[in-house]
Request: fold
Amino acid sequence: MTFLLARHRAAIVLVAVLAVITILIRGNTVWLDTSVVIAIYALIALSVGISYGQAGILSVAQAAFASVGAYATAIVTARYDLPAVLGLLLAVALPALVAYPLARLVTRLTALSLAIATLVFGQAVDIVLREGGDFTGGYIGLSGIPPLPFAPGLLHYHLLAWAAVLVVVLLLGNLIDSPFGRAANTLRSDTLRAVADGVNVPHVRSAILAFSASVAGLGGWLYAHHIGYIGPDSLGPSVSLSVLLMAVVGGAQTVLGPIVGAALLTLLFKFIPSQEVQGIFYGGALIAVLVLTPNGLMGLRSLWKPRRATPAATTAPERPAATAATGATAARGAS
Reply:
């Protein structure tokens, strides 16, 4: 029982915080809508935490995976009148099916080259969506996406969105403490050691990126049904950079870090609507975090934990001078 509580401590904290916040904002539609947006960005930021924070895969294509999920559910629900649950399955499965073979190709590259490759992939997805004609809505996008039948109001959608975040947090907590998760962490810090330990490096990296793409697709599914519209600019390449910054500011290597970063920077968007000023605050926040706490805001927890006292080196007890002198006299007498 204690082991389970320790493993899912982040989920327990999240539930407690959400319970308090829900009580405070349940009658305010503006804050409920903001809460849903934070949850959507938190999901995409968590996908960055999975790929970059756990396996060291610096992907700048997470918004592209979210777009794939959003367009998948938009097409099947708005064009073909199929249920949103089918759209959910496609939104989670299609990004993973795209990400796994992509990862087999690009994860062997260096960190900078991998980031550039995923950025190019995101741009390619953006071009495909714009040139998709009537199927994707082209430059106009797709509108008339039906709301979820099991979330008729904003309060229900707020609860649904954060339930999705909670499920991902639980899965991530299990992943970190699993042998597969420990192998991914070893890859992040030392690839040669992981190879020496017998880790299948291409498979582990590809599976991690596929899992993170599924989480991003889940965020895209929620986004499409919440807004009712999806276009090429809705989840464009700039969103990938934003969620990457959210994960880094909050702490990509922790479970709750991307959620904290998503909440902080989304609220910053809300209160500072000017794009120019947002850029200044974004840059300032990133510099401040990298200088003051390289592990993100959640890394500040290490400052609160009391340090264990280092045990003093044990030394052999000194031989009393009188005893030593007596021993020496006795030895001379015996001789």
Remarks:
- The beta strands are 142-143, 229-230.
- Residues 307-335 have pLDDT under 50 and may be disordered.
